[in-house]
Amino acid sequence: MQVNARDAAAHARRLGYQVLEAEQLRSTRCLLVLIEPGREPFAVMAQRRHLITAADVQDFAEMLFLRRLARGMLIAVEGSFSKEAQRTAGELRHATITLATELPAASAALNPSLRPITDAN
User: From 117's CA, which of 25, 75, 77, 108 has a CA 20 to 30 Å away?
Assistant: First the structure.
């Protein structure tokens, strides 16, 4: 997945999502708001960084809160998640954040067995 908002949105469409918003936050970070028919919208933040930290998870959780979204997916592009990032994602109260390294196809993202990454190595 690319970190360019336009390319990321095109990728999400190919995977079966409707793109409601696509925003380039930084050169290494973009935010998409996606939806499937009959489902609630959710946010996807793709970030290119060697190691995604707890602060990145908290930043994303704040974005979800401000946009009134209950769930999101944080994607580490060519990177991984620190143990603290994994713990922080699991401890959130107002949102569910899934940590991943790739955006799954639309039907797979709805799978209730999809869990945050548990081992960053």
Answer: 25
Query: Rounded to an integer, what is the distance from CA 58 to the centroid of its chain?
Result: 12
Structure tokens at 69: 């979204």
Task: Record the tokens describing residue 101, joined without a space.
Answer: 């390294």
| Contact call for residues 79 and 48 (beta carbons, < 8 A) | yes
Q: 17-30, pLDDT tens digit by residue?
A: 999 999 999 999 99
pTM of the model: 0.85
Q: Which residues pair with 71 in a beta bridge?
A: 96
Residues in CB range of 80: below 8 A, 6 or more apart: 50, 51, 52, 101, 120, 121
Closest CA to 25 of 43, 45, 51: 45
Boundaries of every domain in the chain = 5-108
- State which amino acid sits at residue 56: D
